[in-house]
Amino acid sequence: MPTENELFSAVDALLEQVTQEDLPPVAERKRLREAAGLTQTQVAAALGTRRETVASWESGRNEPRPPQRAAYARLLEKLADRFPAPEAPSAPTAPQPVTEPPAAAPRTPAPASNPATPPRTSPTRRPKPHAALTGRPAPTVGGAYPHGPLLVLDAGPDGDVTGYGTGGLILDVPAKSLPALVEWTLKEAQLGAERLNGSGKDADPLLVLTSAACERYGLPVQLSEEDRLAGRLPEGHKVLKQLDRAEWRLTKRGFGPWARIYRPAQGGRRQCVQLCIPSWRALDDRAWGHAAELPPAELARVLGTFARRVMTPVGSTAVTGLELMTAFNPPTCAGEPDADGRRRSQHRPGSLGTAPMDPAPCEAPDGHPVLKDLPRFHVRGPAEKLFEEAYDWARELTDDECMQRHLVGIDVNLAFGAAANGAVVGLATPPEHRTNPAFDPTLPGAWLVDLSHIDLSDVQIGRQRHRLHGHLLPSPFTPTGEHPTGPAWYATPTVAYAVELGYEVAPVEAWVRPEKGKYLDGWYKRLRDAYVHTMADLGVAEKLSPQDFLQAMEGYKQRDPETAIVLDAVKMTTKGGIGKLREKARGGGWRPGQAWPALARPTWRPDIRAAVISRARTNMHRKMLHLAAATGRYPVAILSDCAVYAADGPSPLDVLPYDTDGKTVPGSFRLGVSPGMVKHEGTQTVLWGAEVQEQLNADGKVANLARYIKTGEITAKDSGE
Q1: What is the CA radius of gyration of the chain?
Q2: Cα–Cα distance, 398 to 395 (Å, whole number)
């Protein structure tokens, strides 16, 4: 038997439930907040809770508990006084779906001979709006695609399928099979996105299938291990047979996590739908974080925001980054009308054209067909191979640095994007070989030149020569930071930097591209704007003072974890797009000397990748050089876009000199949110750094502290990879 105290406690708990403040229905809670122009983050801050908690109250997944419940009820009560609900119509009493305007294309009944295609009905918009990702009302989608770029499809226990779109859109999806779904999407759903260049093509509609939607349409929730390694459904799967009977086709990559289903274009009109299946690992957590675990409406917000700011995803972030280049620089355009008034497709100036191009031998990665005549097991050295890569360099701390207390890491924002901005690269013509050329810094290409005579202890910065401790700086000419010992191949920006340092250069050979242009400028601007706007949504604005910027960056991703997903995806799209320009052979069947699929793309351009990475590395070195000349401070480690310095204090302000007006050393690192500026990567103690190097230094190689500076955790031995 329970004791008397236990009985009284149980009664008190029951009374508390009875007397709890009444709350309006779930949909009304969200309506009131949005009517007041408040974000979930603002409400959470006022109530001393998390944004995700407020979202769960508005979705009905959870109910508020004391002490927040009373305060939340009061907030909603006051908002209801200011923003009363609109009066419901007297008849009919039950809510009726609102029929969308008819689509641009005329609707016709489905042929009776195709049982896979049900009679088509207009999509309906349910009155269940939700806030945009940032908490602000979503813009109205207009133009040819009033329902936006994508839908996340989910199926209920009864088998009914619901599509969640951007801006709070919710559609009933009538299709009962995958072929019928593709047909409905193209003819009724009004999905897509307008082209980014007038000569390009509109984005295909994207359908994201949840696990329940996969089951509804006969797809496995997860691929078997064998199918996952193959990257696609096996031949003969029933869904593939359905698509084949309905005369839908798949691309060569088959039906995988990102499947493209199409019919040949008719009358210049594309018929193509892109599928994304998160449970098949379509949304890699390295780029998309926990996006695959989000509820359908939340996932639609995340992907919709990315689509609006970057483009509709078409694969991994790397694939999307590469496709974004083509979207801004289509290979063809319409020519002038001929005698019959017809316009024919022609090469578009400024693009990479439609044909793949062999690289210069020095630009080709090992195993490329242009190198098939090399002896077996031949290892190419610097005089045979262009090796433009990001920094991985470290040195031992000096005695003076060991006397300081902290190691401070600073990280360049969107470093490869900033390096792409203004980069002059070769376009659609093959490289030209030249012997004993005069170096031309305006000519993109690769140059065989000896830079071993350049002494970093005596360099020109601007118009003045400076004496520095050159042994404390990495070489700008090699990714390892080691000084070159003889002739080597370099991209144009690297050789131009040698000239900038005040030294003569005399190339003995070159592969150059006279047809040139700033191919990546539009691509960069799109990603730059996406990055800056998303950071602003996280509370980090442009033009903040250094102190305000550092304060705004404290815990910025925790302010809205879903917006942080978009930010990471933007960064990975930038980095991955550059990497895709030199995609290597994959798969067990490939042998050196054989072509691999990526070589068939006009966008397989290792020379462009090399130019961007060359600019990123020399940009980094230039900033370090200016800082050293002005302050006598030198980096102790660099990993790609992160540099580590010893300092007396734990803040980047203890490394970077700022005056009272917020100005710093011209040409050096600057704190801020824009690409090319830097943020705080992490701080550890000098003692920590000494222990890491003592633990990991081996075979004369110094452990790179930049690899561990963010968290201080050492997860594996430093292999330099």
Answers
A1: 29
A2: 9
CB 250 within 8 A of CB 243: yes
- In the numeric block, the tokens 């050789």 are attached to 495
d(CA 525, CA 184): 35
Whole-number percent of the chain with pLDDT over 70: 88
- Which run of H or of E encompasses 487? strand 487-491
Q: How far apart are CA 384 and CA 235, in angstroms?
A: 44
Task: Single out the residue of 165, 172, 410, 453 nearest to residue 302, CA to CA.
Answer: 165
Contact 276, 153 (CB under 8 A): no
| Residue 718 near residue 707 (C-beta atoms within 8 A) | yes
Alpha-helix residue ranges (DSSP H) falling in 501-594: 521-537, 546-553, 561-580
Residue 399, phi-psi category: left (phi > 0), alpha (psi -120 to 50), beta (remainder): alpha
> Cβ distance 157 to 199 under 8 Å?
no
Q: Which amino acid does the sequence have at 521?
A: D
Integer Cα distance of 595 and 367 in angstroms: 9
Query: Is 679:414 a contact under the CB 8 Å cutoff?
Result: no
Distances (CA, A) of 474 to 363, 450, 477, 620, 629: 24, 17, 9, 11, 15
Side chain identity at residue 182, one-letter code: V
Q: What's the whole-number mean pLDDT along residues 668-697?
A: 96
Residue 103 pLDDT exceeds 70? no
Extended strands (E) in 141-243: 150-155, 161-164, 170-173, 206-209
CA distance 411 to 642: 4
What is the mean pLDDT of the segment spanning 428-436?
97
Dist CA 636 CA 16 (whole Å): 61
Write out the E strands in 350-413: 392-394, 406-412
Peptide linkage before 382 cis (omega within 30 of 0): no
What b/e sequence results for 425-463 when a residue is b if at least 16 CB atoms lie within 10 Å of its CB, and e otherwise?
Answer: bbbbeebbeeeebebbeebbbbbbbbbeebebeebebee
276: three-class secondary structure by DSSP: strand
- For residues 492 and 614, what is the distance between their CA atoms, to the nearest angstrom? 8
Residue 666 structure tokens: 């011209």
What is the 8-class DSSP label of residue 203?
B
Q: What distance in Å separates the CA atoms of residue 494 and residue 446, rounded to the nearest whole number?
A: 10
DSSP H or E run through 72:
helix 68-82
Which segment of 14-23, 93-102, 193-202, 634-643 scores lowest on mean pLDDT? 93-102
d(CA 154, CA 164): 8
> At 695, which amino acid appears?
Q
**Length of the chain in residues, anyone?**
721
Looking at residue 93, its pLDDT comes to: 38
Average pLDDT of 342-369? 94
Nearest of 479, 389, 392, 402 to residue 718 by alpha carbon: 392
Closest CA to 77 of 122, 125, 21: 21
How would residue 558 be classed by pLDDT, with cut points 50, 70 and 90? very high
pLDDT tens, position by position, 623-652: 999 999 999 999 999 999 999 999 999 999
